[in-house]
Amino acid sequence: MLDPVLLRQRPAEVAERLAAARGFALDASALESLESERKQIQTRTQELQNLRNTRSKAIGQAKAKGEDVAPLMAEVAGIADELKSSEARLEVIREELEAIALGIPNLPHESVPLGDDESANAEQSRWGTPRTFDFPVLDHVELGARNGWLDGDTAAKLSGARFTVLRGGLARLHRALAQFMLDLHTGEHGYLEVNVPVIVNADSMRGTGQLPKFEDDLFTTAVGESKRYLIPTSEVPLTNIVRDEIVEDTQLPMRMTAHSMCFRAEAGSHGRDTRGMIRQHQFEKVELVSIARPAESEVEHERMTRAAEVVLERLGLPYRRMLLCTGDMGFSASKTYDLEVWLPSQNTYREISSCSNCDAFQARRMQARWRNPATGKPEPVHTLNGSGVAVGRAMIAVMENYQQADGSIVVPDALRPYMGGIDVLR
Fold first, then answer.
1. Which residues pair with 343 in a beta bridge?
2. Coil, strand, or helix at residue 6?
3. Which residues are catalytic?
4. 168 and 91 part of one domain
5. How crowded is residue 381: how many other Cβ atoms within 10 Å of its Cβ?
6. Which domain range does residue 97 map to?
7. What is the pLDDT of residues 130-178, one digit of tens each?
8. Considering the domain boundaries, does residue 328 fall inside one?
């Protein structure tokens, strides 16, 4: 959520910036009209409350003197009726203003390039050299099918399209990747491992920006009258740990990591990456989340992105870092780096990690604050999240980059301690 003071005082400026950077149409005049009405009704509500209190005291004083209180009682009753109506209208206006605010995306950081789509993303760096093959390259589906390890047909029978069953060595490789990432982030990068629920309430989804805008992309579950959501990423429960909290300065930065199942309906992505495991309804990720002091969030963003890069470097996977443009960035982000790993079968780089600084946008939605020692007052924290990295896509990249002519897959050195001595999947 954007700074409410900014929205109240400079709605036209905010609308102009959102239109230029995000292509988002904010009706500044409607916002100004609602805000004007809110001020008027709030002022009148306070006047009525004071008047009611004054007249109520007068009734008590009149009774003590034995005076007729009927006129005062009638006046208080009239005040109460108007006050009730005023309070009801004020609540409606506040809800309308909140609904508008919840639907507004974050303002991009000044360093983010302007652009409508991924074609305007800016490459920042590359690591590694794509391997040259002297035999026909297979994609991960062909490699998995040859060994009976990757089975989309059985998964479709069990659940439908965009699910996968993994067996044998490939299932073990998948597990090894997650364990390797967790050990790396907790042992070397200073993240605290957290095991979180994969079913959360609406408040949690609203706090990180999935609701109300992206409800169609979420899987839901209901028991009786209770509706809950399957998480699209463990960013949601990890970040919401500080919802409605005031964090002490000594606790910052809070760095957390979690390995979890993730669930996405992929609404609007029909026909995109339907082959194999690139875009699934259910997948696994090792997520990184930081809760930081505002002055340190840019440095923390670089640190988090570097932690994700180390995963790919230890696995020997060529990748590039991209700074996303305004039109390709997520709803809650003010700045995002994507890491794209090399996939030989596609002869291109594909996203495997997205690391975002959301500044105070999510914190305002969650009422997540820290006590600034300089002022002694609570202020919004900054929140950051990143994939460290997507487990399934890392497995795809390992399969394709380490494939051999006979269809076998060499296990990267970093994963061998997790594979029980297996160095080649045959």
1. 348
2. helix
3. 264, 279, 351, 354, 393
4. no
5. 29
6. 4-102
7. 999 999 999 999 999 988 899 999 999 999 999 999 999 999 999 999 9
8. yes
